[in-house]
Amino acid sequence: MYKILALSLVAAASITACGGSDGPAPYPTLDGKAPLVIGHRGLPGLYPEETRASYEGAADAGADSLELDVHLSKDCVLVARHNPWLSDNTNITEVALTNAAVAARKRTVPGVLVPVTYSLATYGGPAAYLSDRTVANDPKSVLKSLIVDGEDHTGDWSITDFNAAELKEWIGGTTFDAAAQRPAR
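Given the sequence above, the corresponding structure tokens read:
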């Protein structure tokens, strides 16, 4: 659905950019102005997401801005990738079978539930949240588990555990390329 929406927004931006005396119908935004067209992960409906081609395609199609998912590698290099965990669409599991350094970096400690310290009556929400700080008094304990947006990714690898050179050398397929879902023409 996202790809259809992205293509629709890009098509609307292209029609607007081309102009014409009878232009498109008014935009259904609250203030009546044209919607902001954002190239999230570039233009993944036509190109592999989080790639240079995808970002250039979105810009060429008239996106008002580009939104990148970026994460820091261990050596503080920005990496464009949707998720900070690696097993969802890379070959890291296969690499770990023959590379002890990769296998050793697998996050194996589950997150822990931490009670909230604010008033639930005032602010609502859950009484506890999943945290990657597995030892309350040890700020470095976050390097043991992998919690992302409240989801426990125990048994996975984090992009922050590898430097940029290692990611390039060892890990392949670090973007989601839904080539079968993109239009062939």
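Strands lie at 38-40, 65-67, 70-72, 78-80, 112-115, 128-131, 147-148, 151-152. Try to locate this feature in the token string yourself.
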